[in-house]
């Protein structure tokens, strides 16, 4: 049964501006495993990855019904790319299945999270 759906759209330029203003931004948003993947990327791809993780975590918090804040923080959710490049949620405050999707243009990243309750 579907427990929640969340979507988000983020301007990549906005993430770039936050990164330039706040050097600790990467460590605030990314878990160590995500940061490891981020550091293996370069140029525009690294920025797309960072914006994608921001947006995916925003989408998760919307699907979860709390928004990012005191109930769910950026470090409470971990989403890494599998060997095919698909985002996989490896840590989250939800017991069921979490489906994640991310897409981007040169300007925007859009994400969707679907929370599915399982009976196994």
UniProtKB/TrEMBL annotation:
<keyword id="KW-0443">Lipid metabolism</keyword>
<keyword id="KW-0963">Cytoplasm</keyword>
<keyword id="KW-0275">Fatty acid biosynthesis</keyword>
<dbReference type="InterPro" id="IPR004568">
    <property type="entry name" value="Ppantetheine-prot_Trfase_dom"/>
</dbReference>
<dbReference type="InterPro" id="IPR008278">
    <property type="entry name" value="4-PPantetheinyl_Trfase_dom"/>
</dbReference>
<protein>
    <recommendedName>
        <fullName>Holo-[acyl-carrier-protein] synthase</fullName>
        <ecNumber>2.7.8.7</ecNumber>
    </recommendedName>
</protein>
<dbReference type="Pfam" id="PF01648">
    <property type="entry name" value="ACPS"/>
</dbReference>
<keyword id="KW-0808">Transferase</keyword>
<feature type="binding site">
    <location>
        <position position="58"/>
    </location>
    <ligand>
        <name>Mg(2+)</name>
    </ligand>
</feature>
<comment type="similarity">
    <text>Belongs to the P-Pant transferase superfamily. Gsp/Sfp/HetI/AcpT family.</text>
</comment>
<dbReference type="InterPro" id="IPR050559">
    <property type="entry name" value="P-Pant_transferase_sf"/>
</dbReference>
<keyword id="KW-0460">Magnesium</keyword>
<feature type="domain" description="PAC">
    <location>
        <begin position="1"/>
        <end position="21"/>
    </location>
</feature>
<keyword id="KW-0479">Metal-binding</keyword>
<keyword id="KW-0444">Lipid biosynthesis</keyword>
<dbReference type="InterPro" id="IPR000700">
    <property type="entry name" value="PAS-assoc_C"/>
</dbReference>
<dbReference type="InterPro" id="IPR002582">
    <property type="entry name" value="ACPS"/>
</dbReference>
<keyword id="KW-0276">Fatty acid metabolism</keyword>
<comment type="function">
    <text>Transfers the 4'-phosphopantetheine moiety from coenzyme A to a Ser of acyl-carrier-protein.</text>
</comment>
<dbReference type="InterPro" id="IPR037143">
    <property type="entry name" value="4-PPantetheinyl_Trfase_dom_sf"/>
</dbReference>
<feature type="binding site">
    <location>
        <position position="8"/>
    </location>
    <ligand>
        <name>Mg(2+)</name>
    </ligand>
</feature>
<comment type="similarity">
    <text>Belongs to the P-Pant transferase superfamily. AcpS family.</text>
</comment>
<dbReference type="GO" id="GO:0008897">
    <property type="term" value="F:holo-[acyl-carrier-protein] synthase activity"/>
</dbReference>
């Amino acid at each position: 049964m579907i427990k929640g759906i969340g979507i988000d759209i983020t301007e990549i330029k906005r993430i770039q501006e936050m990164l330039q203003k706040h050097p600790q931004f990467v460590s605030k948003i990314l878990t160590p495993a995500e940061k490891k993947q981020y550091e293996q990327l370069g140029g525009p791809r690294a920025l797309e990855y960072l914006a994608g993780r921001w947006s995916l975590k925003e989408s998760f918090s919307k699907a979860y019904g709390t928004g990012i804040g005191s109930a769910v923080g950026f470090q409470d959710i971990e989403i890494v790319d599998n060997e095919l490049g698909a985002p996989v949620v490896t840590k989250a405050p939800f017991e069921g299945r979490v489906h994640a999707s991310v897409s981007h243009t040169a300007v925007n990243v859009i994400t969707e999270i679907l929370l599915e309750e399982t009976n196994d």
